[in-house]
Amino acid sequence: MQLHTEKDQKEIKKHGNYEFPVHISLEKIQSYEQNSFPWHWHPEIELTWVMSGQIEYFVNDEKYLLKEGDGLFCNSNSLHSGYMKDGKDCSYLSVTFHPRFIYGYENSLLQTKYVDFIISNESWHSLRLKAETDWHQDIIGRIRHIYQMLQTPPPDYELRVHLILAEIWQKLYLYYSSLPVSGQQPQKNLTRLKDILSFIQEHYARELTLDEIAEHVNICKSECCRFFKKYMKMTIFEYILFLRIQNSLPLLRTGESITKIAGMTGFSTSAYYGQIFKRYMGCSPSKYRKEHMGEMRT
Predict the structure, then answer these.
(1) Class of the CATH domain delimited by 188-292
(2) Which of 106, 125, 190, 297 could covalently link to 60 via disulfide, CB atoms 3.0 to 4.6 Å apart?
(3) pTM for the whole structure
(4) What secondary structure, in 3-state letters, does 232-280 show?
């Protein structure tokens, strides 16, 4: 399974529909290519409950090690990614919903007072829900209840999901509104990061220099490197290689020649492509193609 994004890393996936903007899914980190889902964002809020195993989860510049029983609140528009830990699989429930599922209609009091208050604050990008904290455990219990209803949906399933998510949001609001008043972080950091990711996504298939990337966001090269690594937990060069390999996978499944794929995804030679491919995927491009030839991923 691959996660598909637009050039600015916005996920290309419907999370429910207009009538019921909620998507609930059971996930396994092992089911993703490279045993990880890459950096992406979406306007929906995401709640995660780890059912077994553990996962390294990144949100903006924060790193979490989520273990069985833990949960996570990931705010709207926050960049996030997840990685397998110690070569072991992790099963988790993902509950993704659009903020309007809570507030109803635009500019309602529910939106301006209770929802925008949280989703507009970049510093509140995520919150780890710990088993030892009572009100965190209460939220996890509600997520678990959604999972139980998913097995055999009752006649009023959608209404119950709405009520549960509203109760969870109330607890998040009470927590965030109790914090000391502090200056809200400007959105410029997240905007800058998305600009960098968008530029790399657009130009990854050719030779790409640090000078170009830094100039694109109007900062010096050293600050560009520091800023990127702080948020992405990897260097710009490492990310470009990761992206090139990720984007080569669907091409391999089409049967295109490995030499041509190497050139199409920014590698100078097929030998170098093979070397980097094995580092990330644990096998050669030809072996991967043999195992996955003709598969259609969604």
Answers:
(1) mainly alpha
(2) 125
(3) 0.76
(4) HCCCHHHHHHHHHHHHHHHHHCCCCCHHHHHHHCCCCCHHHHHHHHHHH
